Automatic annotation (TrEMBL), chain A:
Lineage per the UniProt record: Bacteria, Bacillati, Actinomycetota, Thermoleophilia, Solirubrobacterales
GO molecular function: ATP binding
Positions of the ABC transporter domain: 9-257
Protein name: Phosphate ABC transporter ATP-binding protein PstB
InterPro entries: AAA+_ATPase (IPR003593), ABC_transporter-like_ATP-bd (IPR003439), ABC_transporter-like_CS (IPR017871), P-loop_NTPase (IPR027417), PstB-like (IPR005670)
From TrEMBL, chain B:
Location (main, coarse): membrane
Organism listed in the record: Solirubrobacter deserti
Gene name of the encoded protein: pstC
InterPro entries named in the record: MetI-like (IPR000515), MetI-like_sf (IPR035906), Phosphate_PstC (IPR011864), Phosphate_Transport_Permease (IPR051124)
Official protein name in the record: Phosphate transport system permease protein
UniProt subcellular location: Cell membrane
KW Transmembrane helix (keyword) present: yes
Gene3D superfamilies xref list: MetI-like (1.10.3720.10)
Lipid bilayer topology: Multi-pass membrane protein
Function: Part of the binding-protein-dependent transport system for phosphate; probably responsible for the translocation of the substrate across the membrane.
Keyword list, A-Z: Cell membrane, Membrane, Phosphate transport, Transmembrane, Transmembrane helix, Transport
Parts of the chain that traverse the membrane: 29-54, 74-107, 128-149, 169-189, 242-262, 282-305
Family per similarity comment: Belongs to the binding-protein-dependent transport system permease family. CysTW subfamily.
Organism domain of life: Bacteria
Domain (ABC transmembrane type-1) ranges: 78-305
């Protein structure tokens, strides 16, 4: 089993149209129109509270888990509306995976069981040999296989923070989603582990469409193809998407002055 | 990690300077006194039980009630106590866990809050009321079910029959006990279920887990030791429950696994309550000896619960 971990796969695009995101009566993000290209890494940047994480979480319907939170507008995965009346959030999340800010492996499970967790859901029956192959492929894909292949039965919590985060990426990719959302996936990690995650992201885009929220400008410029800048006019005002373009253009010659101020470190 | 910090803080407080005003000294005296009184009470109870049980332990068989040796007297009672409490646990734990999950993860907030108050209220009902309810309502209402069990599951030793016509059976007693211990098990497990880290629950949901699968992947493993320790606490209460059993259970003293008949072993606590007023001499010592056994059993159960709780704290 030494097949290349990342053979190119056509992933899916995401298109949001006039998307408003609410927490109860509070409008948190207003009027987002964006097309997220397939097999590209799109970075969401902006100051804290500007709604980029809220927007990210709306893309796999995690946003609505907060009591009272809801979305108004349209989000298409290729051409299927994930907010259609007959869309099942569980199926949406199966197609659009997510990696969180802090690594969150299931503490009572072994490394193997963590990766296999998503595959055993929804009473799917998978043969042990197939499961073994998928777990190995996911761990190889997350550049973790060589480090853990001799201790797959050990608890996932025994790994280092960076390894745990790659374990979570393996867990998310094992179910073969079309899109991978990452909410500041390296913010809790040291610089070496951060680089490992960034290298991994570049490889993963061969198979997945990736959307990543980051506070780290270098990370956005290193790891992403496109960048979307979110901003907020003031406290209590909704966040909005200022502009989205190629990362190169956003960081060298953005259309809006506020984007330039932000990426060059001048605020307000 | 947080528990180490708490320990550090406490050791700083303990080893801190003893000087201070009169208020400090009074507080210190009162707190120390309260601690000593509780320990002395526990030791006093244990001593009382041993001293007063001793004549019965050393007495010859023919002097004891029933003319048998002490073990033959206490064993059926212990058996009845353990059977009643065990079945109560078997009924109460799944029910309590389900109720706790409903409150913590399924019910909308405006239903969950009043509901947990209502469950707590169950704990405030005096046990004599439960006993009256058991004999007047639940017992008669269960007769049909007991007959059905005898007819359809009679091949199991538990439902051998003949089914009681009054419903004053071990099964009904266990059901009443189950309702009585439900609040404590629900309260303990619910509070732990609610502490399940949000990032774990979100991790499961983001994998495409349904709500039940999320609970199975994260909430139940997280709350496992709470379920165990809460069950032990409930078991401890069920073992010692007196009034409800004394009122409901129809007793013959037989050792039987039949849960639906009218000839049941009594329990230690109910037996003491019913027989004590009419006993004298060695019979009293024999009753106290049975109390000593109950004391030991509840102590062991509670210590086991503590061990499990402490082990969880360290994780």
């Amino acid at each position: 089993m030494t097949a290349p971990a990342h053979t190119p796969v056509q992933a899916k695009s995401i298109t949001a149209t006039d998307l408003d995101l609410y927490y109860g009566s509070f409008l948190a993000v207003k009027g987002v129109n964006i097309t997220i290209e397939p097999n590209k890494v799109t970075a969401l940047i902006g100051s804290s509270g500007c709604g980029k994480s809220t927007f990210l979480r709306s893309l796999n319907r995690m946003h609505e888990l907060v009591p009272g939170a809801y979305a108004d507008g349209e989000v298409l995965l290729d051409d299927v509306d994930i907010y259609a009346a007959d869309a099942d959030p569980v199926q949406v999340r199966r197609q659009i995976g997510m990696v969180f800010q802090a690594p969150n492996p299931f503490p009572t499970m072994s490394i193997y069981d963590n990766v296999a967790a998503g595959l055993k859901l929804n009473s799917r029956k998978i043969k042990k040999s197939d499961l073994d192959a998928i777990v190995e492929r996911a761990l190889r894909g997350a550049n973790l296989w060589d480090e853990v292949k001799d201790r797959l039965g050990k608890p996932g919590m025994g790994l280092s923070g960076g390894q745990q985060q790659r374990l979570c990426i393996a867990r998310a990719t094992a179910v073969e989603p079309d899109v991978l959302l990452m909410d500041e996936p390296a913010s809790a990690l040291d610089p070496i582990s951060t680089l490992a995650i960034e290298d991994l992201i570049t490889e993963l885009k061969k198979e997945y469409t990736i959307v990543i929220v980051t506070h780290n400008m270098q990370q956005a410029s290193r790891a992403s193809d496109n960048t979307a800048f979110f901003n907020i006019e003031g406290t209590g005002k909704p966040g909005r998407l200022v502009e989205v373009d190629t990362t190169e253009k956003i960081f060298s010659n953005p259309t809006h002055k506020e984007t330039e101020d932000y990426v060059s470190g001048r605020f307000g | 990690m947080s528990s180490t910090n708490v320990d550090d803080l406490q050791s700083v407080v303990r080893g801190g300077p003893a000087r201070g005003g009169a208020g400090d000294r009074v507080f210190r005296g009162l707190a120390t006194g309260a601690g000593v009184v509780i320990l002395a009470t526990l030791a006093g109870v244990a001593l009382f039980l041993i001293v007063r049980a001793w004549p019965a332990i050393t007495a010859s068989a023919e002097d004891l009630p029933g003319g048998e040796n002490l073990l033959a007297y206490i064993w059926p009672l212990t058996f009845g106590t353990i059977i009643a409490a065990t079945i109560a646990i078997v009924i109460a734990v799944p029910l309590s866990v389900a109720v706790a999950l409903f409150i913590s993860h399924i019910a909308p907030r405006r239903i969950a809050q009043p509901m947990s108050y209502l469950i707590d209220l169950l704990a405030a009902i005096p046990s004599v009321i439960y006993g009256l309810w058991g004999i007047a309502v639940l017992g008669p209402a269960s007769v049909g079910l007991l007959r059905w069990l005898e007819d359809n599951l009679g091949w199991l030793p538990f439902f051998e029959g003949p089914a009681s016509a009054t419903g004053r059976t071990m099964l009904v007693v266990a059901a009443v006990l189950a309702v009585m211990i439900l609040p404590i098990i629900t309260a303990v497990t619910r509070s732990v279920f609610e502490q399940t880290p949000r990032r774990l629950q979100e991790g499961a949901l983001a994998l495409g887990a349904t709500r039940w699968e999320m609970i199975r992947l994260t909430v139940l493993p997280f709350g496992k030791s709470a379920i165990i320790s809460a069950s032990m606490l409930g078991l401890g209460r069920a073992l010692g429950e007196t009034m409800a059993v004394a009122i409901v259970l129809s007793v013959s003293g037989a050792i039987t696994f039949d849960l639906i008949g009218s000839g049941n072993p009594s329990t230690i606590a109910a037996n003491i309550a019913l027989d004590f007023p009419e006993s004298s001499g060695l019979a009293v010592n024999a009753l106290i000896a049975s109390g000593l056994v109950l004391f030991a059993v509840t102590l062991v159960v509670n210590m086991a619960a503590r061990t499990v709780i402490n082990r969880q704290m360290r994780i």
